[in-house]
Structure formats: C-alpha cells, structure tokens
Amino acid sequence: MSTIVNDIEVIKANHTKIHDIDFNNLKFGHVFSDHMLECDYKDGKWHTPKVVPYAPISLDPSAKIFHYGQSIFEGMKAYKDEDDNILLFRPLDNFKRLNISAKRLAIPELPEAFFMDGLKTLLKVDSDWIPKKEGSSLYIRPFIFATGKGFHASPADEYKFIISTAPSGAYFAGKVKVLIEEKYSRSANGGVGFAKAGGNYAGQFYPTQLAVKKGYQQVIWTDDNTHEYIEEAGAMNIFVRINDTLITGPTSDRILDGITRKSIIELAKTEGIPVEVRKITVSEVVEAAKNGTLKEMFGAGTAAVISPIAGFGYKNEDFDLPELENTFASSLKKRITDIQTNKAEDPFGWRYKV
Ligand SMILES: *Cc1c(COP(=O)(O)O)cnc(C)c1O
Asked: Which Pfam families match (predicted)?
C-alpha cells in the first residue's frame, strides 16, 4: 500500500520489527528501523525520493562504487522530547556538507528539498523507532554511492541516495587511550579529508588495528607532512585543554568541519571558556602533559558527542591525563545534549523540530 506524505510516496513494510528490539539495551548502529528513504539519480537528474521498507539492495558487479569508491555519507541523530516532538540538530549543516562531499567526489549534488522533506517523512513514518531513554537516539545515516555500470575509471552516470536509521544507545563506554600517529595519515592537502568519503575510513582501519594491538583504542591523526601537529581523534575532531584554555585545530583540506566541533566552540565562548582555534603541536601537548598543565583531551562528533581521552601514547611513552571532578568535556556534553533533547533553551537556533 502506498500513500503520499509531504509529496513523498510512502510504501509501508508489511511487518514491523519493532517488537523484537530491546530498547533498554541498544548498541550503536546495530539494528535498523522498518523503513528507509531511497532516491535515484539517472538520466541526468535526481528523481523524487520514496520511503520504502528497509531491505537489501541489488547492484551490478560493475557498479562504480565497488571499483572506484564514489561513496559519501553523513551522520546525524533524531531525538524525542517529553511531548513526543521529533527533534534534529542543525540538519541543514549536514545537508550542506553532504553536497560539499558530493562535489569533491564528482557526485551530482542533491536538491535540498529531497534531503529535508525525505528525511522528515522518513522520521514521521518511523517515529516509534526514536528512543526516549536518556543517552539514546535514532542515529541517521544519509549516504550516496555510484550505482552506474562500467569498468572505465570515470564518474558514474547513476547514483543512489539512501537514508537509513538505527535506534542507538551511547557510542563509547568509558574513556579511551589513544596513540599519536607518527607514520600513517588519514588525509593530505589537496585530498578528500574534509569530505565524509567512505574511503577515508577504510584507510584509517589498518593503522587503528596496529594501535589496538599496542593497547590503544584510537589513533590521534597528525599532519601528513611533518606529523608534528595534532589534527583529529579517530573519526572525530579533537579538543585539548591546557590550563583553562580549550584548543582545537583549524578546519582545512585535512580536518573535517564537524558540526559538534563548531557547536562546542560557540558554546564554550558563551560559557566564558577561552577558546583558541589554531594548530596544536604534538610537542606542546607532551610538554603540557609533563608539567601538569594538560587537563583534558576529548574527541567531538555526532555519534559520541564528546568522547573523553584518558591518556595518550607517543614515541613509546605513555602519558595519563588527570582525573578531574568537573571537566569541560562533561559540562559541554551536557549543554549540547540538553539543547538537542529540548531540556534547555536553545539561544543559537540549533534545534530543529520536524
Ligand atoms: C563526521 C566526522 C567528524 C565529526 O563531525 P560531526 O559533524 O560533529 O559529526 C569529525 N571528523 C571526521 C573525520 C568525521 O568523519
């Protein structure tokens, strides 16, 4: 059976899987809601999206995604407040960044209405899948990949845009130990590090496996040229607190323009926390760890919001961070999640009611 919602056709699943899901014990991104948004690019244009039952897709073996990696994605979250309003956080920024990634990977840019109306329709159809438990949310994964055929190394002529969603619990449990990378890089000047391109993550897995073997959970990426500057933490932006100043690197070809990162910068400023956006050297962080002025390090990204770092390894030496009572990480995380979930005023206009 099909209906039309916000001009978008909705084809409902015959059965719901929702009764099989234990909403009190959700992992991150492990189970998927009943429906997905599907939208195709062919004959030179994007065609109106549809909400369809979540299901496997079939592709030609020569589809260019498999050979040349034209694949980009976004990550967002939906929340429900006390009154069952469906809330998003700065969704237009995700839409804009998807198109920035698209352009860099020679993927045709998507019209805003297809993204926003498609997303809103999907969330209304699967609204029961949005968890209300504190710390939980509906993780939203918009992505585009090349479905066009042929072994010729050139951009595809057909693409698919999908949004699928996964009710999720908290991303990380506990603090992580990280390794400052001295050899490998996740990005380079002129490269695709600023885009959420699938291949960026594939390239991170092996160095991360090596770090895990050494007893760390994540890699701190440094600049590809000198490895002297701290740039990102795994697939998150990184913040360092030296004394009472919060420092993060400037966005560039190599550092992704994270929505959590820029929200933290704005929030910290309004809280009166001194913030510096500038290059961070590995040596100043090591120095600060040695002389006790390094108070906190944390990753920032949609999935975990803020992920505190317990310590780091560098050149076969380990440095522990202090265990503070009141951290910037926990107070800023609370400020952001309170705004996201409508537990606090939103003077910035970040919250978006569906
Ligand atoms: C997605 C991502 C981030 C965080 O971006 P948010 O918009 O805050 O989720 C940071 N770094 C990398 C490499 C990423 O892929």
From this structure: Aminotran_4 (PF01063)
Q: For a substitution probing ligand 1, which of 77, 192, 201, 256 has the most ligand atoms within 8 Å of its CB?
A: 256
Q: How far apart are the first and last CA of the chain?
A: 24
Write down the pTM of the prediction.
0.95
Rounded-to-integer distance, Cα 344 and Cα 352, Å? 14
Q: What is the pLDDT of residues 320-331, one digit of tens each?
A: 999 999 999 999
Please say if the pLDDT value at position 24 is more than 70.
yes
Ligand 1 centroid–CA 272 distance in Å is 25
Q: Max Cα separation, the chain?
A: 67
Nearest CA to ligand 1 atom 13: 235
Residue ID of nearest Cα to ligand 1 atom 11: 236
Euclidean distance between CA atoms 280 and 61, whole angstroms: 44
Residue keyed to tokens 């380990």: 318
Report how far apart, in Å, the C-alpha atoms of 190 and of each of 58, 194, 195 are: 34, 10, 11
Give per-residue pLDDT as tens, 177-227.
999 999 999 999 999 999 999 999 999 999 999 999 999 999 999 999 999
CB of 260 closer than 6 angstroms to any ligand 1 atom: yes
> Is the beta carbon of 235 within 6 A of some atom in ligand 1?
yes
CA distances from 208 to 32, 112, 212, 214, 352 (A): 26, 35, 6, 10, 35
The DSSP result for 154-220, as a single string, is S--S-EEEEEEEEEE--S--S-EEEEE-SS--S--TTSSTTS-BHHHHHHHHHHHHHHHHTT-SEEE
Query: Are the C-beta atoms of 211 and 234 separated by less than 8 Å?
Result: no
| Domain definitions of the chain by residue range | 9-168, 176-339
d(CA 141, CA 117): 15
Of 159, 141, 135, 160, which is closest to residue 38 (Cα–Cα)?
160
Domain 9-168 has CATH 3.30.470.10: yes
Closest CA to 327 of 297, 286, 287, 303: 297
